[in-house]
Automatic annotation (TrEMBL):
<dbReference type="InterPro" id="IPR019772">
    <property type="entry name" value="Ferrochelatase_AS"/>
</dbReference>
<dbReference type="GO" id="GO:0046872">
    <property type="term" value="F:metal ion binding"/>
</dbReference>
<dbReference type="GO" id="GO:0005737">
    <property type="term" value="C:cytoplasm"/>
</dbReference>
<comment type="pathway">
    <text>Porphyrin-containing compound metabolism; protoheme biosynthesis; protoheme from protoporphyrin-IX: step 1/1.</text>
</comment>
<dbReference type="InterPro" id="IPR001015">
    <property type="entry name" value="Ferrochelatase"/>
</dbReference>
<dbReference type="InterPro" id="IPR033644">
    <property type="entry name" value="Ferrochelatase_C"/>
</dbReference>
<dbReference type="InterPro" id="IPR033659">
    <property type="entry name" value="Ferrochelatase_N"/>
</dbReference>
<protein>
    <recommendedName>
        <fullName>Ferrochelatase</fullName>
        <ecNumber>4.98.1.1</ecNumber>
    </recommendedName>
</protein>
<comment type="function">
    <text>Catalyzes the ferrous insertion into protoporphyrin IX.</text>
</comment>
<feature type="binding site">
    <location>
        <position position="212"/>
    </location>
    <ligand>
        <name>Fe(2+)</name>
    </ligand>
</feature>
<dbReference type="GO" id="GO:0004325">
    <property type="term" value="F:ferrochelatase activity"/>
</dbReference>
<keyword id="KW-0627">Porphyrin biosynthesis</keyword>
<keyword id="KW-0350">Heme biosynthesis</keyword>
<keyword id="KW-0408">Iron</keyword>
<keyword id="KW-0479">Metal-binding</keyword>
<keyword id="KW-0456">Lyase</keyword>
<dbReference type="GO" id="GO:0006783">
    <property type="term" value="P:heme biosynthetic process"/>
</dbReference>
Amino acid sequence: MSFAPEPAQAHGREPQTPSTAVLLCNLGTPDEPTPAALRRYLAEFLGDPRVVEIPRALWLPLLHGLILRTRPAKSAAKYAGIWMPEGSPLKVWSEKQLLMLRGYLGERGHRLTLRLAMRYGNPSIPAVLDELHAQGLRRLLVVPMYPQYSSTTTASIVDAVAQWSSRIRTLPEIRFVNRFHDHPAYVAAVARRISAHWAREGRPDKLVMSFHGIPQRNLELGDPYHCECLKTARLVRERLGVSADDVVVTFQSRFGRAQWLQPYTEPTLVDLARRGVRRVDVVCPGFVADCLETLEEIAMEVRDAFLGAGGQVFHHIPCLNDQHEWILALTELVQEHLQGWDTRSPPDTAALAAQAERARALGAPA
């Protein structure tokens, strides 16, 4: 096995960028809303054994023989309906979060390199880590932007970092944020998003908290995601001060014929409408940035289903996106996981000069 080239030693020289990096990772997005771009993206996404736990010999022929021949065009049309002038909403909001987080941490005196990477698509995790490694990466905090842990999401990001590290000779110290579903600042940010909407629009008959679904089998095999979703919903509800009867928790984005976590979002909304519920507000606490699943699936498809079944008013409450309270929460989360790493002290020029002198005395190039 061959390893990637190491950056040149720089005895006694301050690195061009801070050697401690924070890597924000989200799911990913196609490069453009076209069938060709969706085919590349879906091949990577649905080809991940963390996402689809079906034996490869059965799944891959189905994926490449049928799904990637039919689904890309349909998905491209959906992406085209939500595409922003700057690009994919998920990437646009993620980049804004990165920019704001860089400023918030900088105001607190941290000297850090911050980057954004996507598990599927671009910028890819290996490409961004290669860039950081070339710049002298010494310490790395990986922040999957998934509040609730699942083997299908958070663990897949850990896999991607591990695969990258397997070809690196000199590894940085690496830490991961596995979950923040019950972090008080995150819960407060979600509750603030909802209460601000209610202050403008009034309260609904029902508040629906819709989380992304996963197969029921994952729960039975020990995945904690379902439990963490329910805990997030309870903590947000308690923060809002509303009763359990006023809140409905559902799961969306079912794929395939297998049973997934229930109740399913769209059938639940149709049932609420048929039972006389006139207004619902739907929020998606498992997504920190608006994306296809919130802007198209919830704000379009589920809305049409609810209104078509007799509902009168449907509101989609936006994700956290660039909300001030959310960036504060993210700042707090990062600071907690940086503990023990000195990210505030300026370079010690005297120590660097002494290091360079010792290196030259031992034969290192100047």
